[in-house]
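QUALITY CONTROL LOG
STEP: pairwise intake check
CHECKER ROLE: data steward
CRITERIA: each record must contain a sequence immediately followed by its C-alpha cells, with no blank fields

ENTRY 1 OF 2
RESULT FIELD BELOW
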Amino acid sequence: MDRMMIKSPAVLIKIVILVLALYMLSQITPIYLPIIAAVIVAFVLNPFVNAIVDIPLGARRHHLPRGIAILLVFLLAGLLLTLVTTFVLLPFINEFNKFVVDLPRLIIKIRDLTLLIEQQANLAQVPDNVRQLIVNGLGEAASYAVSLTRNALNTVLAFATQIVELVIVPVLAYYFLKDWKNLKDEFIALFPPTLEVKVVNVIEEMAIVVSNYIRGQVLISVIMGLLVFSGMYFLRVDYPLVLGLLATLTETIPIIGPIIGAIPALMLAYLVSPILATKVAAFYIIIHQIENHIVVPNIMGHTIDLHPTLIIISLLIGGQLYGIPGMILAVPVAALLKVLLRHLWYLDDDKKDR
C-alpha cells in the first residue's frame, strides 16, 4: 500500500508534465517548419555522411571524425545548391515573374473559355442542371488551379526569403546528424529499464520508416518534376519551369497530388488549343502510369504499408487541420502512428511474434 502511495504521485507528476508538454507543442507550431526541414535534410544527407566516415584512411585504416564528414557533405551540398540556383532557380524566378505579370490575362482567358463552353452547351441543348454543373465545375477548377499555383509558388519564394530559418536549418541538421545516437540515448533514459528494449525497437522502426519515406519521396518528386518540365518544354506549354516545380511540390501529396499538379498544365494548354490539351492529358496519364508501376515500386517499395483508404483519410485530416502542409505530412505521420500503436497494442512479445 505504501509503495502504491509512493508511485501514484510520481505517475501523476509524469502525466501532468506530459500534458503540459503536449499543450506547449500545440502552441508553438510556427517553429515546426525549420525543424521538419532540418530532419528532412538530415535523413537525406545521412547516407553520404556514413559513406565518407566508412572510407579508411592510411595504412592504419583510420576514419574521418563524423563532424568533419558532415561538414564535407554540407560543402558538397552547398556546391550543388549553387549550381541549382544558377541554372534552375534564377531562370525559374524570371519565368515566375512572367507568370505573375500574365496572370490577369490568363484569368480573363479562363473566364472567356468558360463562357464559350456555356454557349456551346446551350447550342447542344444540354439540360439546364447539367449545363450549370459543368460550368460551375469548370469555373471552380480553373479558379482553384490558378489559386493553388500562385499560393504554392508564393510559399516557396516566401520560405526562400526567410534568412533566419535558412540559417537554423543546417545548424539543426548538423546536430541531428552528429548527435543522433546521444539524443536517442537521452530520450530512452526517460523510460524505466523494463521498457528500454521496447522503446529502442519503436524508435529504430520509426527511424527506418521516416528515413526511407523521406529519401524515396524526395527522389520521386525530383524525377517527376524533371519529367513534367521536359514534357511541357517539348510540348511548348507556357511556363514549363513553373509547372515542373508545381509537380515536384504536389508529388509530396499521395494519390491526389499528381492530379492537382496536372490541372494548371491542362488549363494552360487548353487556352492554346484543345489538341494541345489532349496531348498534355495523354502525357500526364503516361508519366503517372510510369510512376505508379515503375518509379514508386522501385524507390519506395513497401516503406509506407498503409491501405489507400487510410491514406485518403489521413490526407483529409491533415488538410483540415493544417492545409497543404498537413496533407504533405499526413502519410508519414500516419505510418509512424501505425508503428507506435502496433508496439503499444502488442505489449507481450510472444503475441507479437505469432
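ENTRY 2 OF 2
RESULT FIELD BELOW
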Amino acid sequence: MVAAPGWLTASIMLATVMQVLDTTIANVALPHMAASLGATQQEITWVLTSYIVASAIATPLTGWAAEVIGRRRVFAGAIAGFTLTSLLCGIATGLPEMVIYRVFQGLFGAVLIPLAQAVLLDINPRERIGQAMAIYGAGIMVGPIIGPTLGGYLTEVFNWRYVFFINLPVGLAALAGVMSFLPKESTKARRFDFTGFAMLAISIGALQLMFDRGEAVGWLESAEIWLYLGLVVSGLWAFAIHCLMADNPFIDLRMFRDRNFVMGLVFIFIIGLTLFSGLALLPPLLQKLMGYPVIETGLVMAPRGVGTMLSMLLVGRLVSRFDPRVLVAIGLALTAWSLYDMSGFETQMDARLIVTSGVMQGFGLGFVFVPLSTLTFATIAPHFRGDATAMYSLVRNVGSGVGISLVTAVLSRMMVVNHEELAGQLTATAPQVRDTLPGLLQQSPLMASIADGLVGQQAAMIAYIDNFVLMMILTLAAFPIVFLLRRPGAGRS
C-alpha cells in the first residue's frame, strides 16, 4: 500500500507535465533559437524531432528497466537525468550541442510517461481507474497545449533559454516527491533482449528519418528514402519474427491478442498525428502570416488548454457512468468540427475563430483521451501492464513525430503548388489584374514584387488550410475504430 497516494499522484503528474511540456514549449521559441544558435529554419526543427525520436526509441525499455532496476530507482533516475539535460539545453551554444542534449533529454524522459501511467493504474482500485486516467490525461493533454503559451511568455519576457530552465524547479520537486512517497519494489532478473530492442530501435529511427528527409530529397525518387523504407520494413519484420521465436523476447507479443489494446494503439497513433502536428503548425501560422508577436501567439493558443481542462474535469466523472465508446465518439466529432472551422482561417481576420476552434478542439481531445485510456487497458492482463503502457506511449510518440514531419512536408509542397496555381492566374488579361492593377504589373518592378509577395502569402495560407483538412480526414477515419472497442465488463477479448 502507498502511504500518501495524493502526494505521490501530485509528484508523478509534475514529472509527466514536465516531460510532455517539452514536446511543444520550444515551438514558439524556434525562430529565436535558430538566430541564437546559427541554424536555418529547416535545421532548427531537429530540436523538436530529435527529442521525439530519442523518446520513442527508449520508451520500450521501460518495462524491462522497471523490473530489473526497480520502478522507484528508474523513476527517480529519469527525473534527475531529465532535469540535468534541461539545464544543459538551456546553456547550449550551437545546434549540434543542442541536438545532442535534446537526444539525452528524450532518452531520460521516455520512461516517465509509461511509468506514471503504470503507477496510477496500480495504486487505484478498478472503480477509480477512470478518475485516475483523467488526472493522467490532464498532464498528457494539457502539457503540450499550454506549452506554446508558456514558451511564448518566457521567450518574450526573459529569453528562449528559460523554456528549458523552467524544468529545474519542477524536476527537483517531482524528484523529492517520488523519492519520498513511491515505495521500493522487489526486482527480478530479466535478460535484456538486445536483438529485439535493436530491431525495433532501427525501424523507429528509420521511420522518423524517412519522414524528416523525404521532402528535401524528393521522397521515393531518392535512394536515401528507399534505404530508410527498407530499414523500417525489415526491422519490424525481424523484430516480430524474433519476438515470436525467442524464449524471453523484448516485447511479449501475446499482449496484442487483446483487441481493446490493439485498437487503442491505432487510436492513439491518430491522436498523436493530429494533436502534436496541429500544435506545431499554429505558432508559425500566427507569427509569420498573421503578424502576431510571440507572447500574443501564446495567449491566443491558451484557450485550447482551458477547453482540455474543462473536458478532463467533466469526463473523469462521466467515464464511470456512461459507455466510454460514446464519449470517445463525441470527442472525435468535436475535434473534427474544430478542424473544419480551422479550414476557414484567413490572413485578415481577428482572433475569434482561432480561440473558438481551439477551445472546441481541446474539449474534444480531452473527451477522447480519458475514455480511450480506460478502454485500452480495461482487459489487459496485469503482468503485461508495464510493457503495455510503454507500447502505448511509444505509439503516441511515433504518431507525434510522423505527424510533425508529415504536415511540414505537406506544407512545403503545397506552398509551391499553390503559388504556381495562383501566379498562373495573374496574367495581363485576367479580370482581377485588368480592373485593379491596370498596366502597373508591367510598368513597375516594385508592383510585381508586391504582387508576388501577396501571392506567396495566400499560397502559404491555403497550404495551412490543406493541412487542417488532412487532419480532419484522419480524425474522421478513426470513427470506425470506436465500434471495434469492447466496453469494460462486456467480456474479455
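INTAKE CHECK: passed for both entries
DESCRIPTIVE NOTE, ENTRY 2: The chain has two domains: 5-192+250-413+463-482, 193-249.
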